[in-house]
C-alpha cells in the first residue's frame, strides 16, 4: 500500500507512521517553502519516510485532458496522474488531501482517497 500525500497531509495530518510507504511528487515538494515545512519534508525524505515519484507523461496528459482537472493546480494534477499510474499498475494506494477539486477528480476515476482534516466529498461535481 502506498500513501500519496499532498501539502495538507504534511501540514495538518497525523504525521508519518513507521513502515508506511508515503510518496508525493516534486510539484508537491516545491509547495513547501517556509522553513518549518521544508525541514519536515527534507527530514522525511532523508529518513526514507517519504519518497518523491513522478507520474508518467501518458497519465499526466490524460489528467490534463480531463475536464474535471481544470480546477486542479499543476502539483495536484501531477499527484492525480501518479495515483492513476499506481491504479493502472494494480498497486493499492490511497491519496490524502483536503482539496475538494482533487478529491472530486479521484472519486470520478475510482481512486481511493482520505481527507486530512475536512469532511470528504459525497458526490462528483462536474
Give a structural overview.
- With 126 residues, the chain is of the alpha/beta class.
- It has one domain (2-114): Rossmann fold, CATH 3.40.50.1010.
- Helix content is 44%, strand content 13%.
- It contains six helices and five strands; from the N terminus they run βαβααβααβαβ.
- The protein has a five-stranded parallel sheet with strand order 3-2-1-4-5.
- Strand 1 (2-5), helix 1 and strand 2 (21-24) form a beta-alpha-beta unit.
- The radius of gyration is 14 Å and the shape is globular.
- The protein starts with a strand and ends in a 12-residue tail after the last strand.
Q: Which tags fit this structure?
A:
126 residues; alpha/beta; Rossmann fold; 6 helices
What topology emerges from the helices and strands here?
Blueprint: E1 2-5, H1 7-12, E2 21-24, H2 26-29, H3 35-46, E3 50-52, H4 57-65, H5 74-88, E4 93-96, H6 100-108, E5 113-114
Parallel strand pairs: 1-2, 1-4, 2-3, 4-5
Sheet having the most strands = 5 strands, parallel
Order of secondary-structure elements: EHEHHEHHEHE
Query: Tally the helices: what do you get?
Result: 6
Shape: globular
Query: What would CATH call the homologous superfamily?
Result: 5'-nuclease
For the record, the count of structural domains works out to 1
* Low-confidence blocks of residues: none
**Helical residue percent band:** 40-55%
Q: Under the CATH scheme, which class?
A: Alpha Beta
Overall pLDDT, averaged?
A: 90
CATH domain topology: Rossmann fold
